[in-house]
Amino acid sequence: MSSYKNYVEKHRKLILDALDYIWKHPETGYKEWKTHKYLADEFEKLGYELTLAGNIPGFTAEVDTGRPGPTIAVFGELDALICSTHPDADPETGAVHACGHCAQAAALLGLAATLKEPGVLDNLCGKIRLVAVPSEELIEVEYREELRKQGIIKYFGGKPEFMYRGLLDGVDMAIMVHTTTGPSSTGSMYGGSNGFIVKGFNFEGKSAHAGGAPHQGINALYAANLALNAVNSLRETFKDNAHIRFHPIINHGGDSVNAIPDNVKMESYVRGATMTEIVETNRKINRALAASAAAIGANVHLRDIPGYWPRRHPENCCQIVREVMTEVLDNVRVDHTSWATGCSDMGDVGAVMPALHPFISGATGVAHGSDFRITDPDTACIKSAEFQLAFLTRVLKDNAKIAREIIDSYTPDFKTMKEYFDFVDALNIDKKAVRYEEDNTVVLSF
Ligand SMILES: [Zn+2]
Ligand SMILES: [Zn+2]
User: Fold this and answer.
1) How far is the CA of 11 from the centre of ligand 2 (A)?
2) How far is residue 424's CA from residue 315's CA, in Å, rounded to a whole number?
3) Which helix (H) or strand (E) holds 130?
4) Which residue among 205, 284, 296, 400 has its CA within the 20 to 30 Å range from the CA of 40?
């Protein structure tokens, strides 16, 4: 039994009780108050002083080795998502932990307990900031728009919101372990994964009697239909290695069947491997949406919202994660050349500092699906906490030699959080894309 295992094993009941509670109390992003309270109480019982996010769930707690060195943030995500067909979904909200964040939160508590054990920080340098972070799943956009309008949040993702609130100030690198499916005791990490922009686009036409006077109308549904075809005609311009994804849905397609639809609401993400590719593709898509509306005299209201930054794990980060995983897990699949097309706001942390997002097994079913469950809590929580302790020990020992190497060799996309925020804020678009002039000129603006 490794010494890490000895430390974590003592807290098995604390960890598994937390998993059980959080699984049974699923809450979606920025609503995780029960989860917050449960964890905050347990952290305080362990003797931690918490820095609360305040008017949103979540907090940070710091462990100081007493010796100078870098600060490493360890995240545990709090939020569930909505999958109302899941048998364990909350009957009122449809929320369920179908992404397994409950296991992350339980493992974070386990790590917090372990870091209070005598001797565990011996020979380590720097600080460890434990971060219970809300709202990773980017869902319930209207609710979050409302929170934004009320001035409660500025960002839809909990990690950029925590950055904005200064809760990650002074942090030099970050790590979190996400639960996944697969054989027991398996660890993995990709070289990186996609980022995205969130898009809402409302086609606006003119209603008229669909039988008696359709010639008086402008059909917003047909504008939407043209737009989908126009974007599909762009797909061959998407570069293979840019991993572009555009997957729109129609939220509202018309009001009554005997009237020409004058308002059609759609939304999508534009996902891609680099923010440059995402921005470039998004511009082409907006042009296609605008031109399709203009083709039949309609309009389109474009609403672009920054989503998440692409994640990337340099080779040296993968190497360390592979070595540490090999110490505590039976199967290890870490490949810095592999790419995943899902997204996480851990990418936003990675825009300004090294941010590692490995996976550890313990779940079965389909992620975000109605059969997803934590079936191997020993791997998902106990081994995850063990890995995190082993990782922190590895990078913070010997005067934090490895942590310093990772930090010094990492080239962030932005030197400061301010530069990052200036860039993502500029991604916001909220305007009508078509202007009709008196002289038959049509101006597209996107
Ligand atoms: Zn998810
Ligand atoms: Zn997730």
Assistant:
1) 24
2) 27
3) strand 127-133
4) 400
What is the amino acid identity at position 131? Answer: V
pLDDT tens for 186-232 read 999 999 999 999 999 999 999 999 999 999 999 999 999 999 999 99
For residue 142, the tally of other CB atoms under 10 A from its CB is 10
8 Cα–ligand 2 center, Å: 23
* Dihedral sign from CA coordinates of 213, 218, 220, 222: positive
CATH of 195-308+425-444, one of 3.40.50.1950, 3.40.50.720, 3.30.70.360, 3.40.50.1110: 3.30.70.360
The structure's pTM equals: 0.94
How many other CB atoms sit within 10 Å of the CB of residue 14? 18
Summarised one tens digit per residue, pLDDT across range 1-17 is 468 888 999 999 999 99
Residue whose token pair is 């996480």: 344
CA 98 / ligand 2 centre spacing (Å): 8
**Locus of tokens 């999958």:** 83
